[in-house]
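Slide 14.
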Amino acid sequence: MLAAYVTSATMLIVARALLGIAGATLMPSTMSLIRAMFHDERQRTVAISVWMAGFVLGGALGPAVGGLLLDHFRWGSVFLLPPCFRSSGSTSRVVSTFPAP
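Slide 15: predicted structure.
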């Protein structure tokens, strides 16, 4: 969200670097969570499939949604949408699908 409110190119580069570092930890940490939560092979296969579909859809829809945001709002708006999806959807789904011990 810091990248949405920067006032210079240097601040934008630093903010994007921090986003890149944080993003690099996303895939391995979520994969380890899936591995720990789903012990049954079939459930794990479904969970990894849903996980990968999220990455594929994000990569496919991201540029189009970003273009629509840029057409209608200021350039910083493209950095405000992803945290909404991450905080609202992913946390509730992961917690609700965790199998009971």
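Speaker note: The CA atoms of residues 35 and 41 lie 10 Å apart.
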